[in-house]
Amino acid sequence: CWLLMTLGMTGLFLYTGSGFALSLAVCLVALVLCALPVNLIVRNKLRVTMELPVNMRKGEPGTALLLVENPTIFPVLRICCRVWAENRLNGQKQELTVMTYALPRKTSRIELQLGDIHCGRLHVTTRKIQLLDCFGLIPVRCKQAEGKSTTVQPHTFEQQIHILPNANYSDDSEVYAED
Protein backbone atom coordinates (compact mmCIF):
# COMPACT_ATOMS: atom_id res chain seq x y z
CA CYS A 1 0.00 0.00 0.00
CA TRP A 2 2.75 2.44 1.03
CA LEU A 3 4.94 1.47 -1.89
CA LEU A 4 2.08 1.86 -4.36
CA MET A 5 1.21 5.32 -3.04
CA THR A 6 4.84 6.45 -3.08
CA LEU A 7 5.43 5.10 -6.59
CA GLY A 8 2.13 6.60 -7.76
CA MET A 9 2.99 10.04 -6.42
CA THR A 10 6.53 9.84 -7.88
CA GLY A 11 5.15 8.71 -11.24
CA LEU A 12 2.57 11.50 -11.17
CA PHE A 13 5.36 13.99 -10.45
CA LEU A 14 7.49 12.66 -13.32
CA TYR A 15 4.53 12.65 -15.72
CA THR A 16 2.96 16.01 -14.85
CA GLY A 17 5.71 17.85 -12.99
CA SER A 18 3.30 18.55 -10.12
CA GLY A 19 4.95 19.92 -7.00
CA PHE A 20 2.02 18.63 -4.96
CA ALA A 21 2.68 15.03 -6.04
CA LEU A 22 6.37 15.40 -5.20
CA SER A 23 5.60 16.81 -1.77
CA LEU A 24 3.19 13.93 -1.04
CA ALA A 25 5.84 11.38 -2.09
CA VAL A 26 8.44 13.06 0.14
CA CYS A 27 5.95 13.14 3.06
CA LEU A 28 5.23 9.42 2.65
CA VAL A 29 8.95 8.60 2.81
CA ALA A 30 9.52 11.01 5.73
CA LEU A 31 6.58 9.56 7.67
CA VAL A 32 8.12 6.09 7.68
CA LEU A 33 11.63 7.36 8.43
CA CYS A 34 10.43 9.61 11.30
CA ALA A 35 8.49 6.76 12.92
CA LEU A 36 11.68 4.72 13.40
CA PRO A 37 13.43 7.00 15.94
CA VAL A 38 10.14 7.58 17.76
CA ASN A 39 9.60 3.83 18.10
CA LEU A 40 13.20 3.37 19.26
CA ILE A 41 12.64 5.94 22.02
CA VAL A 42 9.27 4.54 23.09
CA ARG A 43 10.28 0.86 23.17
CA ASN A 44 12.35 1.25 26.35
CA LYS A 45 9.56 3.02 28.22
CA LEU A 46 6.52 1.09 27.03
CA ARG A 47 5.06 -1.22 29.70
CA VAL A 48 3.06 -4.26 28.74
CA THR A 49 1.28 -6.19 31.48
CA MET A 50 -1.23 -8.99 31.49
CA GLU A 51 -4.15 -9.75 33.81
CA LEU A 52 -5.78 -13.17 33.97
CA PRO A 53 -8.58 -14.54 36.12
CA VAL A 54 -7.48 -16.93 38.85
CA ASN A 55 -9.77 -19.73 37.63
CA MET A 56 -11.58 -20.50 34.40
CA ARG A 57 -14.17 -23.15 33.63
CA LYS A 58 -13.43 -25.95 31.23
CA GLY A 59 -14.87 -25.36 27.76
CA GLU A 60 -15.87 -21.75 28.46
CA PRO A 61 -13.87 -18.71 27.33
CA GLY A 62 -12.29 -16.50 29.96
CA THR A 63 -11.30 -12.87 29.52
CA ALA A 64 -7.64 -11.91 29.76
CA LEU A 65 -6.53 -8.28 29.66
CA LEU A 66 -3.41 -7.07 27.90
CA LEU A 67 -2.54 -3.57 29.12
CA VAL A 68 -0.16 -1.39 27.09
CA GLU A 69 0.94 1.75 28.96
CA ASN A 70 2.72 4.52 27.07
CA PRO A 71 4.20 7.09 29.51
CA THR A 72 5.93 9.10 26.74
CA ILE A 73 4.65 12.06 24.72
CA PHE A 74 4.96 10.10 21.46
CA PRO A 75 2.13 7.97 20.08
CA VAL A 76 2.72 4.45 18.78
CA LEU A 77 0.48 3.93 15.78
CA ARG A 78 0.64 0.15 15.54
CA ILE A 79 1.66 -2.48 18.07
CA CYS A 80 1.68 -6.14 17.11
CA CYS A 81 1.48 -8.57 20.05
CA ARG A 82 1.75 -12.33 19.71
CA VAL A 83 0.17 -14.01 22.70
CA TRP A 84 1.04 -17.63 23.41
CA ALA A 85 -1.14 -19.85 25.63
CA GLU A 86 -0.04 -23.33 26.69
CA ASN A 87 -1.84 -25.91 28.79
CA ARG A 88 0.90 -27.27 31.01
CA LEU A 89 -1.01 -30.46 31.77
CA ASN A 90 -1.48 -31.78 28.24
CA GLY A 91 0.84 -29.54 26.19
CA GLN A 92 -1.88 -28.02 23.99
CA LYS A 93 -0.75 -24.68 22.51
CA GLN A 94 -2.60 -21.72 21.07
CA GLU A 95 -1.29 -18.50 19.52
CA LEU A 96 -3.13 -15.20 19.00
CA THR A 97 -1.92 -12.14 17.12
CA VAL A 98 -3.37 -8.85 18.36
CA MET A 99 -2.93 -5.38 16.86
CA THR A 100 -3.39 -2.23 18.92
CA TYR A 101 -2.06 1.30 19.38
CA ALA A 102 -0.78 3.37 22.29
CA LEU A 103 -1.71 7.00 22.65
CA PRO A 104 0.68 9.33 24.51
CA ARG A 105 0.39 9.06 28.32
CA LYS A 106 -2.51 6.61 28.05
CA THR A 107 -3.12 2.93 28.61
CA SER A 108 -4.62 0.70 25.92
CA ARG A 109 -6.71 -2.27 27.06
CA ILE A 110 -7.04 -5.33 24.87
CA GLU A 111 -9.47 -8.05 25.88
CA LEU A 112 -8.51 -11.56 24.82
CA GLN A 113 -10.84 -14.54 24.93
CA LEU A 114 -8.87 -17.54 26.15
CA GLY A 115 -10.05 -20.95 27.15
CA ASP A 116 -9.43 -24.64 26.88
CA ILE A 117 -11.56 -27.73 26.52
CA HIS A 118 -9.22 -29.61 28.85
CA CYS A 119 -8.47 -29.04 32.52
CA GLY A 120 -5.01 -27.94 33.60
CA ARG A 121 -2.79 -24.97 34.24
CA LEU A 122 -2.97 -22.48 31.35
CA HIS A 123 0.21 -20.37 31.05
CA VAL A 124 -0.10 -17.22 28.92
CA THR A 125 2.90 -15.19 27.69
CA THR A 126 3.62 -12.59 25.05
CA ARG A 127 6.02 -14.14 22.56
CA LYS A 128 6.77 -11.08 20.48
CA ILE A 129 5.85 -7.41 20.79
CA GLN A 130 6.70 -5.17 17.84
CA LEU A 131 6.22 -1.45 17.41
CA LEU A 132 5.44 -0.60 13.78
CA ASP A 133 5.09 2.57 11.74
CA CYS A 134 1.63 3.38 10.38
CA PHE A 135 2.23 1.26 7.26
CA GLY A 136 3.82 -1.66 9.12
CA LEU A 137 7.14 -1.49 7.25
CA ILE A 138 9.80 -1.16 9.95
CA PRO A 139 9.31 -3.32 13.07
CA VAL A 140 11.01 -2.44 16.36
CA ARG A 141 11.05 -5.14 19.04
CA CYS A 142 9.86 -4.27 22.51
CA LYS A 143 10.33 -6.02 25.85
CA GLN A 144 7.82 -8.73 26.63
CA ALA A 145 5.27 -8.90 29.41
CA GLU A 146 5.63 -11.33 32.27
CA GLY A 147 3.84 -14.62 31.79
CA LYS A 148 0.74 -15.33 33.89
CA SER A 149 -1.06 -18.55 34.69
CA THR A 150 -4.64 -19.53 35.36
CA THR A 151 -6.28 -22.80 36.31
CA VAL A 152 -8.86 -24.39 34.03
CA GLN A 153 -11.20 -26.26 36.33
CA PRO A 154 -13.61 -29.08 35.46
CA HIS A 155 -17.36 -28.73 35.61
CA THR A 156 -18.54 -29.06 39.18
CA PHE A 157 -21.96 -29.93 40.51
CA GLU A 158 -23.72 -29.12 43.74
CA GLN A 159 -23.47 -31.86 46.29
CA GLN A 160 -26.77 -33.30 47.39
CA ILE A 161 -26.74 -35.45 50.50
CA HIS A 162 -29.80 -37.41 51.53
CA ILE A 163 -29.72 -38.85 55.05
CA LEU A 164 -32.33 -41.45 55.69
CA PRO A 165 -33.32 -42.09 59.29
CA ASN A 166 -32.56 -45.54 60.69
CA ALA A 167 -35.75 -47.58 60.70
CA ASN A 168 -34.67 -49.53 63.84
CA TYR A 169 -34.07 -46.40 65.91
CA SER A 170 -36.71 -45.57 68.46
CA ASP A 171 -37.57 -41.95 69.07
CA ASP A 172 -39.10 -42.69 72.45
CA SER A 173 -36.83 -42.78 75.45
CA GLU A 174 -37.22 -44.16 78.93
CA VAL A 175 -35.05 -41.41 80.38
CA TYR A 176 -36.47 -37.90 80.20
CA ALA A 177 -35.18 -34.60 81.43
CA GLU A 178 -36.14 -33.66 84.99
CA ASP A 179 -37.55 -30.26 84.10
- Helical percentage: 10-25%
How many strand elements? 9
- Average of the residue pLDDT scores: 85
Sheet with the most strands?
A: 6 strands, mixed
Report Rg: 30 Å
**Runs with pLDDT <50, length 5+?**
none
Structural class: alpha+beta
Query: Tally the helices: what do you get?
Result: 2
What is the assembly state of the chains in this entry? single chain
Strand percentage: 35-45%
N-to-C CA distance? 97 Å
The best one-word shape is rod-shaped
Order of helices and strands: HHEEEEEEEEE
Structure in words:
- There is one protein chain.
- With 179 residues, the chain is α+β, with helices and mostly antiparallel strands.
- It is 22% helix and 39% strand.
- It is built from 2 helices and 9 strands, in the order ααβββββββββ.
- Strands 2, 4, 5, 7, 8 and 9 form a 6-stranded mixed beta sheet that branches. The chain has a 3-stranded antiparallel beta sheet with strand order 1-3-6, with no helix packed on it.
- Strand 7 and strand 8 form a beta hairpin.
- Helix 1 runs antiparallel to helix 2.
- The longest helix is centred in the first third of the chain and has 24 residues.
- The protein is rod-shaped, with a radius of gyration of 30 Å.
